[in-house]
Write a structure and sequence with these properties.
The complex is a heterodimer of chains A (about 190) and B (about 200). With about 190 residues, chain A is mainly α. Chain A contains 9 helices and no strands. In chain A, helix 4 packs across helix 5. With about 200 residues, chain B is mostly helical.
């Protein structure tokens, strides 16, 4: 039960993009075409879940025993940066087609604040349970994917809409995201 | 001569190449913390400190950082200064630190910091780097303050927590919700682009 609560809370109630305002750059940047947004969602899911596991173990079995928990920002950022590199190298060698379709989005994940936010929140909320931390990461990734795919669908249609000139591009995207955010606000009572 | 160039660089960062309104980068903290002016300015100044300090260190070490591993080096430098700022804020400004929450550690994932280190600090002399990062940091702070003013007045009718609007002024609570951030930024950018077109 607790796992379902954590998952739903991360995916819907506290949606990373629309409620916590995290990961806006990829949200705006790769939402012009459906296939790229699905690719980005998959890559973010992998990095979020694996980095949650690694940072959880590092925090509890290295940083805490050594009494240097204040170094967590440096450690976590390096873990994510290395992980993104490894995922990239692995995909390049073992799955070239997937690597090709994700190619340019992989390095971008390093500066995706949603990934860093997941591991930082894990330390704050679920430092004592690896299973809950991983569930939280899965929920956050699902929420990110849901918001990104829905938003891409809307933006593909906006291409054909007659929008006043100053609002074309980023402004109308922001207002669309705002309306989606109101819709997600409806999950608050869940 | 070089001072004139440096001042021009500073102006560019604040106005022409404003990180938020012109380049539209680093939007996450902008949307999340601008529910009040104080929070906006607080995060802006924290980012300014991290940006300036890490750009100067990158500039000083540019001859010693191998090109192939420069990104991890940059990240460690900015993460170090982010840690310092976070510890200082925890000690001296605990209430602001509480309000900004994870957005203080997230300064390290701020695209402006990495972009200025990569595209400017690693190539230019220290004086220019100082003016460039100060300009970009202040441009960022200014943008956060403007959005904060809009959202706080429309949402709560206050400025810096002091009531400025009459009782009869309707408070649009939506403006201090996450959705309000998207709306405020969308309308401000649209307004600026309409203004630029009219002047051109």
């Amino acid at each position: 039960m607790e796992f379902i609560m954590v998952f739903m809370s991360a995916a819907l109630v506290n949606n990373f993009v629309l409620t916590r305002s995290l990961g806006i750059c990829p949200f705006i940047g790769v939402s012009k075409r459906m296939d790229t947004s699905i690719g980005m969602s998959v890559a973010v899911t992998v990095v979020m879940v694996v980095s949650s596991v690694i940072t959880h173990l590092l925090y509890n079995f290295v940083l805490v025993p050594l009494g240097v928990t204040f170094l967590y920002i440096v450690v976590f950022v390096l873990v994510i940066a290395c992980l993104v590199q490894f995922v990239e190298m692995h995909l390049k060698k073992y799955s070239p087609p997937l690597y090709k379709s994700l190619g340019i989005f992989l390095p971008l994940i390093t500066t995706n604040c949603a990934v860093l936010a997941v591991v930082l929140l894990n330390v704050e909320l679920f430092y004592d349970s690896l299973a809950l931390a991983v569930t939280h990461a899965f929920g956050a990734a699902a929420g990110f994917a849901l918001a990104l795919v829905l938003f891409t669908g809307i933006r593909e249609r906006l291409e054909y809409a007659d929008i006043p000139k100053p609002f074309r591009g980023l402004p109308i995207a922001m207002i669309t995201a705002g309306l989606m955010s109101i819709a997600f606000w409806g999950f608050t009572g869940l | 001569m070089s001072l004139i160039k440096a001042v021009k660089r500073f102006k560019k960062g604040v106005l022409d190449e404003n990180p938020i309104f012109s380049q539209a980068v680093a939007l996450c903290p902008v949307l999340a913390v601008t529910t009040s002016i104080t929070n906006g300015i607080g995060l802006g100044l924290a980012t300014l400190a991290v940006l300036t300090a890490s750009c100067l260190v990158v500039c000083a070490l540019r001859r010693f950082i191998p090109t192939q591993v420069r990104i991890p080096c940059f990240i460690v430098i900015s993460a170090t200064f982010t840690t310092i700022v976070r510890l200082l804020m925890e000690a001296f400004l605990p209430s602001l630190n509480e309000a900004l929450g994870i957005f203080i550690p997230l300064i390290v994932a701020n695209c402006i910091v990495l972009a200025r280190m990569e595209s400017f600090a690693a190539k230019q002399p220290p004086v220019m780097v100082l003016f460039d990062s100060a300009g970009m940091g202040l441009g960022f702070t200014g943008a956060l303050a403007i959005i904060g003013v809009v959202r706080e007045i429309l949402g709560l009718g206050t400025m810096f927590g002091i009531t400025v609007m009459p009782e009869a002024f309707p408070r649009a609570t939506i403006m201090i919700m996450p959705a309000g951030g998207f709306f405020a930024l969308g309308f401000i950018i649209a307004g600026l682009s309409a203004f630029k077109k009219r002047r051109a």
